[in-house]
Specification:
Distance between the termini: 31 Å
Radius of gyration: 18 Å
Structural class: alpha/beta
Number of strands: 8
Helix content: 40-55%
Length: 284
């Protein structure tokens, strides 16, 4: 294989992951709450403006461990997608998330966040209500929490909209998820003034689970080989393609929380700070 053919193959493979991460048949946050957690009790509203359906928050149990869960939820059909605002949270969504995470801090419950968004909602109404401020406030407060935080990148992890619930002690990523500062189409439109070069941008962004694990930006990757055929999105298990993957994710979550629970609470913010400060460090 020539160098050009190899580059083209890598670009296609990266963009295939993007398409698979966006596949509407993939599991969403509410599916995880059924397969991985139990006794989920949802909490609504940010106590300031409204309830944002793009963010699902509540209390649950994970193999007997009482946890607080915060996740971004997409919809299966057009009506659900509109109701969930295509998983693009508004300021009230991030403030609702912070409200729940603050309660977790108060009562000493670990926090599990589930990331699946193309990005924060960019509408004028969201900007008027302080979208950037809400995201920035979440980043600051999550860095300070003295309870364990584990983030799961379930599908799309888009820009600050994802990072606003992604400041975690452990970051777990699904094999066919993506996590990036910008979408491939957006990157291509900026760099080459041509959104059709999204496959080239996807490869350059290093947004796949394998890339990010190699760069030490995520701590673990959950295999999805039992559930999906990479690049096609076809079901491999017609009865319940996600059941095996859910078991693997659950095991990894339990192990992560048990490991973090052994850390002194006062040390968690320090270790979290060190973790994120080392990301992107260049060594000559």
């Amino acid at each position: 294989m020539s160098q050009i053919e190899k580059q083209n193959s890598e670009q296609k493979a990266a963009f295939d992951r993007v398409l698979l991460a966006r596949n509407p048949e993939r599991p969403y946050t509410l599916d995880l709450l059924t397969h991985v957690f139990s006794d989920f009790v949802e909490v609504h509203g940010d106590r300031r403006y409204a309830d944002d359906a793009a963010v699902v928050c509540g209390f649950a149990k994970l193999d007997g461990i009482e946890v607080t869960v915060v996740g971004q939820q997409k919809g299966r059909d057009l009506n659900q997608r509109r109701h969930r605002n295509f998983a693009m949270p508004k300021p009230e969504g991030y403030r609702k998330a912070l409200r729940l995470m603050s309660l977790a801090e108060k009562f000493g419950r670990p926090i599990v966040t589930i990331i699946d968004t193309p990005g924060a909602y960019p509408g004028i109404d969201a900007e008027e209500r302080g979208q950037a401020e809400a995201i920035a406030y979440n980043l600051r407060e999550m860095a300070r929490f003295r309870v364990p935080i584990v983030a799961v990148v379930l599908g799309e992890g888009g820009s600050g909209g994802a990072l606003a619930i992604g400041i975690a002690d452990k970051v777990i990523m699904m094999e066919n998820a993506v996590y990036s500062v910008i979408s491939p189409e957006g990157c291509a439109a900026i760099l080459w003034k041509d959104a059709s070069k999204a496959d080239l941008a996807a490869s350059a962004l290093k947004l796949t689970a394998g890339d990010l694990r190699g760069l030490k930006l995520v701590d673990a990757v959950v295999s999805e080989s039992e559930a999906w055929e990479v690049g096609s999105g076809e079901k491999k298990d017609g009865k319940d393609r996600f059941e095996g993957v859910a078991r693997s994710l659950k095991t990894l979550l339990i192990e992560s929380l048990k490991e973090l629970s052994a850390v002194e609470p006062s040390e968690l913010p320090k270790l979290r700070f060190q973790k994120f400060r080392t990301m992107g460090r260049w060594v000559a």
